[in-house]
Structure formats: C-alpha cells, structure tokens
Amino acid sequence: IKEAILAELARGGQVYFLHNRIETIGHAREKLELLLARAGARAPKIGVIHGRMDESNLIRTMECFREKEIDILLATTIIENGLDLSNVNTLIVEDASRLGLSQAHQLRGRIGRGDRQAFAYFLYSPKKITDTGKRRLETLKKYQNLGAGYEIAMRDLEIRGAGNILGREQHGSINRVGLNLYCQILNEAVEELIKEA
Length: 197
Hints:
By secondary structure, the protein is α/β, with parallel strands linked by helices. It has 8 helices and 5 strands; from the N terminus they run H-E-H-E-H-E-E-H-E-H-H-H-H. The chain has a 5-stranded parallel sheet, with helices on both faces. Strand 4, helix 4 and strand 5 form a beta-alpha-beta unit. Helix 5 packs antiparallel against helix 6. The longest helix has 18 residues. The radius of gyration is 21 Å and the shape is elongated. The model has no long low-confidence stretch (mean pLDDT 85).
C-alpha cells in the first residue's frame, strides 16, 4: 500500500483508497496516516467521503480533491458513480473480495482517465476469501483490457447464476401477477419477438 501510494504521489498523481465501512473509515484514515508517516515522506493530505456526509462537506472535499489540495481520497464505493479525474491513476481497494464483480470493474474504471498508466490494487485476506470472491478477483485479473465489460458481465453471470426465470422462487413481477399469468405474458412477448424477426 505504502509503495503504491508513494509511487503515485512521486509522479504528481492522486490516489483513491476504498474502505467500504463508514463506521470504521476514521480508523482506516488513522492507519493510513501512520503507515505513510513511517515512510519518511511528507505527510500526504487525506480527504474522506462517504454517503452519510452532508452534501456541503462532500462537495467541498471533492472540490479540494479536484483542485489537488488532497492527495488521497479515502472513500466508500460512492466513488464508483461518475468521478472522472485524469490525475487519479491509482486505486487501492481494501477487502476487495466483498465487492461484486461488476462493482469492482466499475470502480476500476474510475482510474486511467488520462494519458498515464493506471494501477488498481484489489486487496484481500487469503484466510478469509471465499471461493466466489476468489473467482471474482481472478476474473478482474484476466479481463484487464479496454472494453472487457462484456466478458466480465458474462463471467459474472456464470459466477452468480442466471436465476430461474420460471421458478417459484422468483421475486418482484412473478409474485405480483402470479406464475401462470407471468408465463402467459412471457410467452406472448416471445411470440411477438418471433413474428418481428
């Protein structure tokens, strides 16, 4: 973590550090400050954002980060939504095995928006990782190329399963209209598609 952060800061860049627990994000900041203080480098400025912050603090922190007054943005997955900053080219995700595959891919897309090489570090505990978490991280490693979203979506479908379109364990629409009516509506929609083709 220390080497990745210091390497990015040395080339004048900024870092996203994802800690997806609001309750412990303050403690994560203290640990990060301690880790970087031991590095002997100047103390980088760390900003914190999460979904429970009031809007004015959130906006102020993001403006400071955009203006490069903050070196490291310690955040929850709130950063997956539309932050496009070309100077942020390192992402470090703590306990990445807890993220869904599409969410991890979306987060990875927040970096590398400029002309610099970007680096994404998905950290996990080998003792705690589940088989599903391991398969997700292996997929992220395998599909790193630009435009890999389709392959990742297909692999995510394989890992999670496609569900049971006609089964009784369905939620939402099937439960509202009943299995028989849902099957009838589905059949009519399929017939309509066949006529159009």
